Structure formats: structure tokens, C-alpha cells
Amino acid sequence: MKELVEVIAKALVDNPDEVVVTEEREKNSVLVTLHVAQADMGKVIGKQGRIAKAIRNVVKAASTKENLRVDVDIK
Known about the structure:
Number of strands: 3
Structural class: alpha+beta
Shape: globular
CATH superfamily: K homology (KH) domain
Number of domains: 1
Strand order of the largest sheet: 1-2-3
Strand content: 25-35%
Radius of gyration: 12 Å
């Protein structure tokens, strides 16, 4: 899941070198934390959070294949 979030985020931002994605696993759940530059925060979140919601939906769809619960946290 980490790689998926990283590819999506790097395609959206102006500073792809500052994208950092971490992943913490527990039993059947995964917490993916996305860190981007402050200037790129709006591009990752989008108007009314639409892009952030879309990222979470894509990750959720990919995680159902592996029977995992994935939460994406954007910081």
C-alpha cells in the first residue's frame, strides 16, 4: 500500500522529492502516513477533500484484495 500512495502523491505534487510515506502494520490493519511539503498540501487534499478521499478509496479498493483495513493519514 505504501508504494501505491507514494506513486499517486508524487504525481500530484510540485516537489516529489519531499514526499515521504511510512507504513505501520498490525494484524489486519495498516496505517499509511503521507508527508508532503506544506506548499503541496492543497494539491493532495483538493477542494473539499475530494482528492484525499479519492486516494483513500483507491487504497481501500486495493486493500480488499489482501483482506486488510488500510487508513491513510495525510500530514
